[in-house]
Amino acid sequence: MADTKSDTDGTALTGHACIQSYLKTLPASPGVYRMLDAQARVLYVGKARNLRARVSNYARPTGHSPRIARMIRETASMMFLTTRTETEALLLEQNLIKQLKPRYNVLLRDDKSFPNILVTKDHPYPMIRKHRGARTQKGAYFGPFASAGAVNRTLNQLQKVFQLRNCSDSMFDSRTRPCLLYQIKRCSGPCVGLISEEDYAASVRDAERFLAGRSTKIQESLAAQMAEAAERMEFERAAALRDRIRALTQVQGAQGINPRGVAEADVVALHMEGGQACVQVFFIRANQNWG
Question: What is the pLDDT of residues 77-109, one digit of tens each?
């Protein structure tokens, strides 16, 4: 809650003096801060790895840009929320900026959303890629993820397992020989006919089943294919299938399985103690914790 500070004569503090008055009670922990004007309107939302150190920068009388100096002069009170990690503070900051649209925040005021994974449906050989914003393109969307890093790590592992393309349609149509991703076994080479449309479609279905949380049958199928390849002495194919199973196991371990019955949810927990509030958010998609 915002607390308006007053001088010894009862005059409300503003600007540097107001900000300085909060430093004695601020923790040196990650969190989010809000700067408010005399009418309790939010001027600015920021996040910090160390709240006390970050806010102390605003208490300095000099060294600020004209925009920040003007914001400091208008500040009449502040609000604070501590978080467990800097990443949690970043997510909270993004949500507050989108919700409150403070006048002095010049970033993150657009409709930029959390990232998703998109499996396209407008091409005979669908691609898999990261997607932000409105879901205007035809395809299957999975998410949202808490960060672009979580999406990139998942896509990296999915490419190892299902070997779906991530190139643009124009690049796909112009290829005459397989690219480097095929050489390092991250793509099955559909652009030059190294996999049939039917087999590629099967890989797409498996990727969608995995992203929807139905991965057990995929592992069983890959294990059966690996055993069959070994019996036929197709050892190179068996080794490739083994690597795909290993990659699938790694990405499952990184996601963290949630209790049965919680297929999809945004879990928000709030605990208040001693005048401070702790907020924790989990994104659960397809029985898996995506961050």
Answer: 999 988 888 877 877 887 788 788 898 987 544
Residue 29, token pair as written in the block:
């922990």
Specify which residues 145 forms β-bridges with. Answer: none
CATH (residue range 15-100): 3.40.1440.10
Confidence at 247, pLDDT banded by 50, 70, 90: low
Q: What gap in Å lies between CA 38 and CA 77, rounded to an integer?
A: 7
Can you give the residue ranges of every domain in the chain? 15-100, 116-255
3-class DSSP state of 157: helix
DSSP letter, residue 195: S
Predicted TM-score of the model (pTM) = 0.47
Is-cis flag, bond preceding 144, omega within 30?
yes
- Within 13 Å of residue 265, how many CA atoms lie on the same side as its CB? 12
Q: Which residues of 99-179 form beta strands (DSSP E)?
A: 116-120, 128-131, 139-142
Q: What percent of the chain has pLDDT over 70?
A: 80
